[in-house]
Structures are given as structure tokens and as C-alpha cells.
Amino acid sequence: MQAVRIHSFGDSQQLKLEETPRPAPRPDEVLVAVRSVGVNPLDWKVRQGHLGAAPFPLTMGRDFAGEVIEAGGQALDFRPGERVFGFAQGAYAEFAIVAAGDLAHLPENVSFDTAAALPTPGVTAFQLVTRALGLQAGQTVLIHGAGGAVGSLAVQLALQRGARVLATDLNSELGYVTELGAAQVFDARGKPFEEAVGAVDAVLDLVGGDTLRRSYALVRRGGVVASTVGGVDEAEAQRRGLRAVAFVMQRRPEDLAEVAALASQGVLRPRIAQVLPLAEARRAQEMSQRGEAHGKILLRAA
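Now predict its structure.
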């Protein structure tokens, strides 16, 4: 089979499309035929070595959608031919191994491309909105970086729960975020957002730095600030009577299933910017790293 692998950490030149043996699943694993792959910033961070040591050669990628080829004896919930999506152990390939706990069934009305765009951003947005923030109908949330893969799905989920959404992003994303239904959208490089935003119940920060620092003062006592980029100021939050969450996504099959159901219902609609063949993985990662795509970049394995 063909797979995109690296043999050492480094720039995109390390990505090589190679022939490699098709893997076999262990009892608690599933072998899948990969149809579509989601390219995430995590992918090129792994390639550069930011996430620590890795066994080489390393097949890149984890977000995928495809079909079950073979299920191990303990992976009783999955059968050959079923449509699935989730977190593979090397998704930049024609076939991949997936732990049964990192997999969910895919509804027939959700395409492979849509599904491949959802595992990491979709589960992240779902856990942020429902657990970290616990948004409820009638509340107001300010989302920084609302036009990105996670942010745009978080906007959709917050609106589905009946919250009022305020948002910031670069000027090029403002029209898209407005179309999603945000009540007010602010240019992150324009007038300071805190001069236009009133009190909110929650802040979802996907930007960090000064943007996060300036957000605490906007949140009502008893509210919450959650950030995916770390660095929450616990002392500042405590002084203002807030809850601060340094959020890290957890891979949970029940959350994958919830995301699949929401996509099937039309609640979650990822924006797909470009679909490239597996052989163009280098180009896909370069585009992701430079922030060139307005939406999700996918690789199509078959």
C-alpha cells in the first residue's frame, strides 16, 4: 500500500510517499480503508518534532474517514464494509489501523470528506462548548478565532444550544463567520474588541496571548474562560470570580458519535477549502502551516 511517512523530524521535505506493507489489526483494533484524511496543524507539528520522540519511519496523520476492512476479535462493534471515521494510527495512507475506542460509525448521509474534516476540530469544539463552557440557551459567548476549523464548529454548536455568539477573527474571515449566524463579528486587527463588546458569560479563546489577557475583564462573575492554547491566568480568573480552563481535547468514542449525529442533522457543517490527492501531502501541510487555506484541507486516499 502507499503511505506518506517521515524518517526523521524536519521540514515538509521529510514527507515521502512510499510503498509499505498493509498492517494487520490486533484484537482490539480495526483495519480501515482510508477514503479521506483531514490535515491538521497537529500533523506538521508532529513532523517538526514538537510533540516529542516518535518511532521511525512514522506514517503521518490521524483524522480520517473510510470503511472497515477487518476487525480484531475484541472490536465487536465493527464489521467489514461499515462506514467509519475517527483517529487512525497513521491516516496518510491507503489503509490504517485504528483502536476500536478511537472509532465511530458514520451515518450514510455524511460524506467521507465531511467526516474526515471533523474528528479533531469537531470533538474539540463539542467538548469546549458542552463541557468546558457548558453553554446554555440565553447566554452570550465571545469566540476568538471563530473562522478556523475549531472556531467555526464551535459557533455552530453554540448557536444550536441557543447561545448568542460574538466573534473575532481576521478581516478575511468576518463574512464567513457572519454567515454562520454570529450576532456581532469584530476584526481582530481593528478597533479593540473590548471597546465594543459588553459583558459576556463565557469566552472561548483559540488565539491566546494578548487576546486572552484582554478577555477576562469582559466575563461576568461566575462565568468561564476556556483556551486551547494554554496560558490561562488562574490568579486573574479567581480575582474576578471566574473559572479558567486550559483545554486539551480528549479522544472519546461517545463524543465522536455525537459529532457524527450532529453532522447528519446538518448542525455541524465544516468548511472544506481544498481536496488534494495523497501524493500532494507535502503541499497540503505547507498550506496548513502557512495558513493559506480558508477552511479545511483534505487528502483523498482513494
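DSSP finds nine helices and 16 strands in the chain.
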